[in-house]
Amino acid sequence: MSELLAALQAELAALPAQLPAPLGSMEESSGVGISASERIALIEQARAARQRGELDEAALQRLSAAQPAQQARALEDAINDFDFERADALLAELLGQGDPQP
Q1: Which residue from 53, 50, 82 is spatially nearest to 94, judged by alpha carbons?
Q2: How far apart are CA 74 and CA 64, in angstroms?
Q3: Own/partner pairs, 94-97, CB within 8 angstroms, 24+ separation
Q4: What single-letter DSSP state applies at residue 102?
Q5: What pLDDT shows up at residue 4?
Q6: For residue 64, what are the contacts with CB-CB under 8 A and spacing of at least 6?
Q7: Are 31 and 66 in contact (CB under 8 A)?
Q8: CB–CB of 42/59 below 8 Å?
Q9: Conformation bin of residue 48: beta by default, left when phi > 0, alpha when psi is -120 to 50
Q10: Domain residues of the chain, as ranges?
Q11: pLDDT single digits (tens) 61-92
Q12: pLDDT mean over 23-31
């Protein structure tokens, strides 16, 4: 019985090395890379649509895919909560951040 327990403990100890990166660390990094000019264009498209009372879903999806998960989630939450003032503020904040890529 003790041999079985020892073997099980050894297997369990080896598991972390076999697993992929934790989800939290993937969420912290940017998704799809886009150029600074494309990023600015997407933000301006999304803001212009919002000023017309519309959502440019394609621009927002592309922009969200290129942002760190926390920023993308905040923008999505604002839109889903119909808090368009907050969404506009988040887009303006993104516009002022410059290029997140080195």
Answers
A1: 50
A2: 10
A3: 94/39, 94/43, 94/63, 94/67, 95/40, 95/43, 95/44, 95/47
A4: -
A5: 81
A6: 31, 72, 75, 76
A7: yes
A8: yes
A9: alpha
A10: 37-102
A11: 999 999 899 999 999 999 999 999 999 999 99
A12: 41
